[in-house]
Write a structure and sequence with these properties.
The structure holds 3 protein chains of 3 kinds. By secondary structure, chain A is mainly alpha-helical. Chain A is built from 12 helices and no strands. Chain A is globular, with a radius of gyration of 19 Å. Chain A starts with a helix and ends with a helix. By secondary structure, chain B is of the alpha/beta class. Chain B has a single domain, classed as Beta Polymerase, domain 2. In chain B, 25% of the residues lie in helices and 29% in strands. Chain B contains 4 helices and 7 strands; from the N terminus they run αββαββββαβα. In chain B, β1 and β2 form a beta hairpin. By secondary structure, chain C is an alpha+beta fold. Chain C has 2 domains: 307 residues, Cytochrome-c3 Hydrogenase, chain B (Orthogonal Bundle), CATH 1.10.645; 36 residues. Helices cover 47% and strands 15% of the residues of chain C. Chain C has 14 helices and 10 strands. In chain C, β9 and β10 form a beta hairpin. The chains are: A mainly alpha, B alpha/beta, C alpha+beta. Chains in contact: A-C, B-C. The interface between A and C is medium-sized, with 31 and 33 residues.
């Protein structure tokens, strides 16, 4: 019995199955919200599931020119595995995560970087001009948003005095008055997360008007489906991470109530991300790097300084 | 003809500047001047007109008159359209390129080459336009003796089975 | 850094018509670009020589889906000039009204496409929804949304009643408000500014040199507009401003088009409120005396010029059509060089390249294992049968 429960954690809730179903659901929420904001109808809720199942049934074509065919086939699963692993240490249904340890915040951040690296490798091993340009953009963008994201996440960690996400969210649950003080860092993290998820206005690596499908141009069928699923899962995990670090996780609730709180908050974060997506035009890669280093990183830095000041005042 | 003073002035100016090269000049109506120009003098005339304000070559119309092929150069200063008619014998159709004066005319000149088979002297070689790369060489669709039916009969691959 | 050559087209998400751009990239920047055209040549000029003048009217309408009125009006002005016909004022006014409604619908469409190319899908959705209003106007007035076929030899097909006038004015009033909002959005939204300012520079001299026309030229400070330079139809009696801008970039083209929309609304109001009385068409003989005529017209995308030669028969001897896009494409290669890859779709879209459409459909039938080409009659039958099965019988109409 002892080995079944951890396995269920990883495979069913809150692991693979939950992530897949909820990720695709969030994709629908995101699309529907955008549609409503853009004066459109939007898809029915089954659309993402239908799309995914359809992609599973489609033929997989590996380009002859591909530099490394094994890598080309393995990368989507790699991306997905990294995302699922990152969720293991993020609190979902209660104040504590499945497995929490000191420093799991850093581990989660690094695990969330792996999908981006697989995107780069996917584009690079496709050996098509569009994917090559796309993968160059993936890496350029990674160096732009990763620093502000890290800086933004450090602030709450310093305030809570812990690198453990469960402890950080417990701290904010116990002291909800500190949540509004994290506003700047929260916004910086949201914008950086938008870049990490490669969504408008930062969907530069796969900007369809310029480089068709970007790093995924040569992907098809099952492999493409799993890549898209990994991106959707990343949305859930990213939202969960921001929730745990900035918004106090489930605010002390657990069980059904905790899960409900988690769902409500991730939906709220998805709403904010959809708002960002609708409000802006896609910017150029050099404008994105400028923006992240000139404005976003200093804002995140200011939040860190403010948190250190708060911590000092509190003693 | 006193009501078309500006038109008459343009016409007189061209005739005075290029005696012999410009013939049959005619003021058709307000803002329309038509004239025949000698092919070898064409770039020179266009350059002179461009300096005089006619800085827009609106388009080039190729034509087939039987014995002669040729082209109309529609020049405008946005108000008046001066059309220069350039003729060249069908046996050896050659017109000098005007790219040195109007770099934007490249697609018009390519069209003359492709559609009427007029050799444009000084036009850099390149991809075909507007016909497809696999269009038979030596066939010029805008010539009057070129019939669509004959072409379709030659091209077995174009035959589609009607329902 | 090594160079990569990227093909943009003939099939590409950013392009709505087949054309090809070969881009040489150094990293993200473009060091060379060539334009290849001719994927869509349909031999219309040859086809026009074997059709009568009235048949050609419908052929010419299909040169382009968006500026269908521009091409027919230019063609018909030539025909009427050769036939020495005096077209009634009311017909000319109705043609002008359609020309301006078409400009409104084309510019709104362009705003949406520009939004899409810069990755601003919200703008795309908003403008295209508002564009439905002007399409409704066109449908009410002519019976069709895009190919209005309002022109006929010697005049127009349909008259405008008082009720129609009121309906159109109501919609134009709504569009005027929306356009003010778009002008505000285009000039103030930071990401739009970031994507359009200093992008696709076309200096005044180069615009002249390469023969740019329409809003592309006007955004480079070239005051060139056929409506002002050689007023045709009833433009001489209308009060409107010639819009130019001096930033020479995509932002300028955006502003020029947005402000032209405002001018068009003004003109539509003027035309509808002072519609001359009288007949809407006169008869024109089938055979037209030998002669030649050349006329230009300010289409939404720029100067459209037609040459027509008649030869005493009911068919033209030679017809030449030069659409504005061909004149503007020569500037595109210049605008792209030295720019960013990300700006290429926007720079191409900024001249508003014109779509063309085909007139028959090919259907692959897997049962019979061969391609079937449906003729117009077959398509009609198919449509009638399709609706019959659903209980609507169009066959009796």
């Amino acid at each position: 019995m002892d080995s079944i429960i951890p396995l269920a954690y990883i495979l069913i809730f809150p692991g693979f199955l939950f992530l897949a179903v909820y990720g695709l659901y969030l994709q629908w929420v995101d699309r529907k919200l955008c549609a409503v904001m853009q004066n459109r109808m939007g898809p029915p809720w089954v659309q993402p599931y239908a799309d995914f199942i359809k992609l599973l049934a489609k033929e997989v074509i590996v380009p002859d020119a591909s530099t490394n065919k094994t890598m080309f086939r393995v990368l989507p699963f790699f991306a997905m595995a990294a995302v699922i692993t990152a969720l293991v240490s993020i609190p979902v249904w209660g104040p504590a995560a499945m497995y929490s340890f000191q420093g799991d915040l850093v581990v989660a951040i690094y695990l969330l970087t792996i999908p981006t690296v697989t995107f780069f490798l996917a584009g690079w091993s496709s050996a098509s001009p569009y994917s090559t340009v796309g993968s160059m953009r993936v890496l350029t963008q990674l160096f732009a948003y990763e620093v502000p994201l890290m800086l933004a996440l450090i602030g709450p960690a310093i305030l809570a005095g812990s690198w453990n996400m469960s402890e950080i969210s417990a701290f904010f649950s116990a002291n909800p008055r500190f949540i509004p003080a994290q506003l700047l860092g929260f916004l910086a993290a949201l914008i950086a997360l938008q870049g990490k998820l490669e969504r408008m206005p930062f969907d530069i690596p796969h900007a369809k008007n310029e480089i068709v499908g970007g790093q995924f141009t040569e992907y098809s069928g099952r492999l493409y489906g799993f890549f898209l699923l990994a991106v959707d899962m990343e949305l859930v995990v990213g939202a969960a991470l921001v929730n745990a670090v900035f918004l106090g996780g489930t605010l002390g609730l657990s069980g059904w109530a905790g899960t409900g709180m988690f769902l409500a908050k991730t939906l709220f974060i998805t709403f904010l991300l959809a708002l960002l997506k609708v409000l802006m035009a896609r910017i150029r890669i050099e404008q994105m790097v400028n923006f992240c280093w000139k404005y976003l990183a200093p804002v995140a830095m200011a939040q860190v300084a403010f948190d250190i000041f708060l911590k000092y005042k509190l003693g | 003809m006193s009501e078309f003073q500006t038109e008459e002035k343009v016409k007189a100016g061209l005739e005075a500047k290029f005696p012999g090269a410009v013939t049959n000049a005619l003021v058709q109506r307000k803002n329309r001047v038509w004239l025949d120009a000698a092919a070898e003098k064409l770039p020179e005339i266009l350059a002179w007109m461009k300096a005089g304000g006619f800085n827009h070559l609106a388009t080039v119309t190729g034509f087939d008159e039987g014995e002669n092929l040729g082209a109309y150069y529609h020049m405008t200063d946005t108000k008046m359209i001066v059309t220069l008619k350039v003729k060249t014998p069908r046996a050896n159709p050659v017109i000098p390129s005007v790219l040195a004066v109007f770099p934007g005319a490249v697609s018009y000149e390519k069209e003359l080459e492709d559609m009427l088979g007029i050799k444009i002297q000084g036009l850099p070689a390149g991809r075909r336009y507007p016909l497809a790369e696999d269009f038979p060489v030596g066939q010029y669709p805008l010539r009057k003796d070129w019939k669509t039916e004959d072409y379709l009969a030659q091209q077995a691959s174009l035959k589609t089975e009607s329902k | 850094m090594s160079k990569i050559t990227i093909p943009l087209g003939p099939q590409h998400p950013a392009l709505k018509e087949p054309e090809n751009f070969m881009l040489v990239l150094e990293g993200e920047q473009i060091s060379g670009a060539t334009v290849n055209l001719g994927y869509n040549h349909r031999g219309m000029e040859k086809a026009a020589e074997s059709r009568t003048y009235i048949q050609n009217l419908y052929l010419i309408e299909r040169v382009c889906g968006i500026c269908s009125h521009s091409h027919t009006t230019t063609y018909i002005t030539n025909v009427e000039e050769l036939a020495k016909a005096e077209v009634p004022q009311r017909a000319l006014a109705i043609r002008t009204l359609f020309a301006e409604l078409e400009r409104v619908h084309s510019h709104l469409l362009w705003l949406g496409v520009a939004g899409y190319e810069m990755g601003f899908e919200t703008l795309f959705m908003y403008t295209w929804r508002d564009r439905e209003q002007v399409l409704d106007c066109l449908e009410m007035l002519s019976g069709n949304r895009v190919h209005y076929s309002i022109n006929t030899l010697g005049g127009v097909r349909r008259d405008i009643t008082a009720e129609l006038k009121a309906e159109v004015l109501k919609r134009i009033k709504f569009l005027e408000e929306r356009t003010q909002y778009y002008i505000k959005l285009a000039t103030q939204e930071p990401t739009v500014l970031a994507r359009t300012s200093n992008v696709g520079k076309l200096p005044y001299d180069v615009a002249i040199e390469r023969g740019a026309v329409g809003p592309t030229a006007r955004a480079s400070g070239v005051a060139r507009d056929v409506r002002k330079d050689e007023p045709y139809l009833i433009y001489g009696q209308l009060d409107f401003k010639l819009i130019t801008h001096d930033t020479n970039d995509v932002f300028g083209r955006l502003v020029v088009r947005a402000l032209e929309l405002v001018e068009s609304y003004k003109m539509i109001n003027q035309i509808l409120n002072h519609l001359p009385e009288g007949p809407i068409a006169i008869k024109i003989p089938m055979k037209i005396a030998a002669g030649e005529a050349v006329n230009h017209y300010e289409a939404p995308r720029g100067e459209d010029i037609h040459y027509l030669k008649s030869n005493n028969t009911d068919k033209p001897e030679r017809l030449k059509v030069r659409a504005p896009t061909l004149a503007n494409l020569q500037s595109v290669a210049y605008m792209m060089e030295g720019g960013w890859l990300a700006d290429v779709p926007l720079v191409i879209a900024a001249i508003d390249p014109c779509m063309s459409c085909t007139d028959r459909a090919a259907v692959w039938n897997p049962k019979k294992g061969k391609t079937e080409v449906y003729s117009w009659e077959d398509m009609r039958k198919l449509g009638i049968e399709h609706y019959k099965r659903r209980g609507v019988d169009f066959g009796r109409l």
